[in-house]
Design goal:
The chain is an all-alpha fold. The chain is built from 16 helices and no strands.
Length: about 350
């Protein structure tokens, strides 16, 4: 198998694994409905940071090669792509239920593909818009079908709080903004260091270490705020401590560290335009887990929407970006240099 084809297949498999692992985080707010979203976010990433400590000792030589600029970038990625993203997502799921935020997050393949095609064509090549359009249309159509079913379900529920659902939708849009920024910036670092001996696992561990103090400060800050406000919340681990600690450790290890490692490996092997679309695997996994928790199969319309999502991904994987020189005028020597 040619090297580029091998990278394509391997990268897609890594992206699939990341999606299956990341889909787990959508069910945690449903399993812990009495927990504030801030506590779920800080708890998950505090566990991620603690899990990263022994991994950091094992990979200390590789971590020592990271520069101050690398650590600053890891802190930025951790703050936006980890803590802030999951704060928005958990709050959205608790207010609007699982499917609606899942499908709003499902727009990420479209949003990231468009953003990357505008932003990264000089590095990755450009997928001409006419060639990209069918894939994006299939993904968008699949999301629209599933959304139609969920919205009809909400309208038929007399107990539904439409204000809470609307707020949940807005919070989910905040999560989309965070996770549009994160993979683009993360791919910048990974692609820029692909030939320098920097391992995706090392970068995942570095983000875990960067997250630890941020999550620790946030956790203690929430505890102080809760006590100062005279709340009677059962800190530090809430009303179901065994379940809370177990789920935080599980998501910290599987979703945060292992999922990030798999995504980093995919990002090093695939153009950002294509790897962005493969976030659709997270949406598919989250939907599968949500219907499993409901104890029901998806409706025919929902199944058709899922089929369109998969078709859009397959279509995207068949495309090859055109080199920058083929879609942009050739720059003169020295152009753009400071």
């Amino acid at each position: 198998m040619p090297a580029d084809r091998r990278d394509l297949v391997t990268g897609a498999l890594f992206a699939l694994a990341a999606g299956l692992l990341w889909g787990l985080v959508f069910v945690v707010p449903t399993l812990l409905p009495a927990y504030p979203a801030a506590l779920l976010s800080f708890g998950r990433y505090l566990a991620f940071g603690l899990i990263a400590l022994p991994l950091a000792w094992w990979g200390r030589r590789r971590l020592a090669a990271l520069t101050r600029a690398d650590w600053i970038e890891a802190c930025k990625l951790s703050a936006v792509g980890n803590l802030l993203y999951y704060l928005f997502l958990a709050a959205a799921i608790q207010r609007a239920g699982g499917p609606l935020p899942t499908m709003i997050i499902g727009t990420l393949p479209v949003v990231i593909a468009i953003s990357s095609n505008l932003r990264d064509h000089a590095r990755d090549g450009r997928l001409p818009w006419l060639r990209l359009l069918p894939s994006l249309a299939l993904i968008a159509g699949g999301i629209a079908l599933v959304n139609q079913v969920e919205i009809a379900r909400l309208r038929s529920d007399p107990r539904a709080d439409l204000g809470a659902y609307a707020l949940g939708a807005l919070l989910a849009l905040g999560a989309v903004a965070c996770w549009t920024w994160y993979p683009l910036r993360n791919a910048d670092w990974l692609r820029g260091h692909a030939g320098g001996g920097r391992h995706p696992g090392t970068w995942a561990t570095a983000q875990g270490l960067a997250t630890l103090p941020l999550a620790g400060v946030g956790f203690l800050g929430f505890w102080w705020w809760d006590a100062a406000g005279g709340q009677a919340y059962a800190m530090p681990f809430g009303p179901a401590p065994e379940r809370f600690v177990g789920l935080m450790l599980a998501t910290g290890l599987l979703a945060s560290w292992l999922g990030t490692l798999c995504w980093n490996a995919a990002s090093q092997r695939l153009p950002t335009t294509l790897v962005g679309q493969l976030i659709v695997f997270e949406t598919l996994a989250a939907l599968a887990y949500a219907f499993w928790l409901r104890g029901q199969w998806p409706s025919p319309v929902t199944a058709a929407g899922i089929g369109l999502l998969v078709a859009g991904v397959v279509w995207a994987l068949r495309m090859r970006p055109a080199p920058a020189a083929a879609v942009m005028p050739q720059a003169s020597p020295g152009a753009g240099q400071p």
